[in-house]
Amino acid sequence: xxxxxxxxxxxxxxxxxxxxxxxxxxxxxxxxxxxxxxxxxxxxxxxxxxxxxxxxxxxxxxxxxxxxxx
Length: 70
Hints:
Layout: E1 2-6, E2 9-14, E3 19-24, H1 40-55
């Protein structure tokens, strides 16, 4: 899970299935209007950026319960 922001756009990625929401931050203060079905090119571009960033992350040293895994 995570998000990437470019300008007024914000792509939110949720879950292992990769559910996404594309939000326009200016004018949508509550972040409730999902534009992902209307702006598919922007979604694909931001998904690539997110995947590139995510590929650089190191594995977590804590599991989802906060247990240390050195």
